[in-house]
Design a protein that fits this description.
Order of helices and strands: EEEHEEHEHHHEHEHEEHH
Structural class: alpha/beta
Strand order of the largest sheet: 6-7-8-3-9-10
Shape: globular
Helix content: 25-40%
Number of strands: 10
Radius of gyration: 18 Å
Strand content: 25-35%
Bound molecules: adenosine-5'-diphosphate, magnesium ion
Number of helices: 9
Length: 240
């Protein structure tokens, strides 16, 4: 569903993605781990083409990333993205946040969009918050609304960039449970997270990045019990 080959990205002289090769097959959950500054967010943003790359190729569902126009809008619709900051529209209700893009981009009717939105809000457990504004919800509820909003576009793949890092500790689990539910339903997911419990339980593969490189790409069992590189051992030693 996602494939990257020989991807390089520079910010000025800073080489932040170095010959990145990796794949996310349909239906797999791949967790990306690595220290701060290792290039995890840049990789996510490159897949959605929020950041152009300098060389190499990224494909989503077998097609190279378009650089502009309608094709780029279609790519963005196929790739759902959930960030650390929920980025909900503050002046719109939760249900309106969820119906907006499907109506604008997918040309879904307002009644159809609303029906789907309510189903999705039900699925993430916040249907009773539909008519409220984002500021009236807890952080965990807002992040679940952001997930529902991304799902409303019926994406082929979901990217999560540290979706629980901005949450109070007691709200982390409800968001992870929502993500685990999606994984169980077979959604293709690329998840940047420091939540090792989620990685162990939900990931088919763990990709460990350090200093712009993919240093390890293995099963969670292998990665956590027998990391091969010094960099991974050092990282795990600091966070576990
Ligand atoms: P991570 O998500 O793993 O913490 P990032 O992908 O955010 O890492 O950043 C990788 C490197 O790129 C860091 O050194 C960061 O400072 C740098 N970087 C990220 N975004 C920009 C930008 N827009 N301009 C310049 N440097 C950036
Ligand atoms: Mg980041």
């Amino acid at each position: 569903m996602i494939s990257a080959s020989g991807v390089n990205k520079y910010f000025g002289d800073l080489h932040v993605l170095k010959e990145i090769d990796f794949e996310v097959p349909r239906g797999q959950v791949v967790v990306v781990l690595g220290p701060s500054g290792s290039g995890k967010s840049t990789l996510c943003r490159a897949i959605n083409r929020l950041e152009p790359i300098n060389s190499g190729e990224i494909q989503v569902d077998g097609k190279p990333l378009p650089s502009e126009g309608k094709a780029l809008a279609a790519l963005r619709a196929d790739v759902g993205m959930v960030f650390q900051q929920f980025n909900l529209f503050a002046h719109k209700t939760i249900v309106d946040n969820v119906t907006l893009a499907p109506q604008k981009v997918r040309k879904v009717s307002s009644s159809e969009a609303r029906k789907t939105a309510m189903e999705l809000l039900e699925r993430v457990g916040i249907a009773n918050q539909a008519e409220k504004y984002p500021a009236q919800l807890s952080g965990g509820q807002q992040q679940r609304a952001a997930i529902a909003r991304a799902l409303a576009m019926r994406p082929k793949v979901m990217l999560f960039d540290e979706p629980t890092s901005a949450l109070d500790p007691e709200m982390v689990q409800e968001v992870l449970d929502t993500m685990t539910g999606l994984a169980d339903e077979g959604m293709t997911m690329l998840v940047v997270t420091h939540e090792m419990g989620f990685a162990r339980r939900a990931a088919h593969r763990v990709v460990f990045m350090s200093d712009g490189e993919i240093v390890e790409d293995s099963t969670p069992e292998d990665f956590f019990s027998a990391p091969k590189s010094e960099r991974a051992k050092d990282f795990l030693g600091k966070i576990l």
